[in-house]
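Action item from last week, closing it out:
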Amino acid sequence: MERVRTKKVKVGDLYVGGDAPISLQSMTNTDTRDVDATVEQILALESAGCEIIRCAVPDEQAADAIKHIVKRINIPLVADIHFDYRLALKSIENGVSALRINPGNIGNQNRVKEVAERAKEKKIPIRIGVNSGSLDKELLRKYGGVSPEALVESALQHVKILEQVNFSDIVISIKSSNVMQMIDSYRLISGKVDYPLHLGVTEAGTLWKGAIKSSIGIGTLLAEGIGDTIRVSLTGDPIEEIKTGKEILKSLGLSHKGLEFISCPTCGRTEINLIKIAQEVEKGLEGMNKNIKVAVMGCVVNGPGEAREADIGIAGGKGEGLIFKKGKIIKKVKENELVEELLKEIKDM
């Protein structure tokens, strides 16, 4: 698919937009003031594949904690700030790689200019984040409620404030918990600006429902070439956000990092306990950092073909299975030994 070409913005040591790969983000749910807990969570997210992390900075103590957090992590940190421009200035001073603020909410033009000038001096981009739950009352009256047009106008108002002080290292997000509203909003703004777009369905929900909503919203836009960086917003462990985001990117061919695992849905032709085998294989693959495709297939109809297309895989038979590697059968194994033998072969690759 051809991506909509946007401006390239540097966030820490990576780029967002232009021809840069689509980056994967998350947000800590620890108290930022608790440095050890926050660092521990960020390092775990790094190991899972997170490339940019955002932390809430609600007060001066949290802004001070940023200084100690950035020294102990390896990925760019974005300070999430509302209303108080002084927290933005302190976060810049303490080493963040980007800010997430809405310039219309941090005070008068002089305050915005001061933040923008300091950010420009430190080569720190600003992400404008518009949310359907916090639209200005005037826009709600103008459009009769939340709508893609209202969300886009709000984003453009914030963009204009930064442009008026000659700041252009901008990333935009327009999030809604309504999937179609989110999709339509990004489609609309994509045709109006060339700034990089950060995609996400806000307040998507818990793991199962939230992953589905996020996959549809983010996936639809990415398939249309819209979007430069993503966050899957889920209620729970943020590592699940990274896992889901990685699968969205891999399913669209936008990332080839890490394992790709496929398994058949099972049917009346299946003669091994494929569900149990697939679950055990998937669990055994956790933590493996290999860029390979693994297939667990249940029968001789589609199984051999799918397994051959994978780097390694199983095709089930009656109480046994064939293990394929690089398109060739390497062994026939009894059902109760399939998982162990497959994982052993994968580890040796």
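Closing note: Residues 232 and 245 are 6 Å apart (CA to CA).
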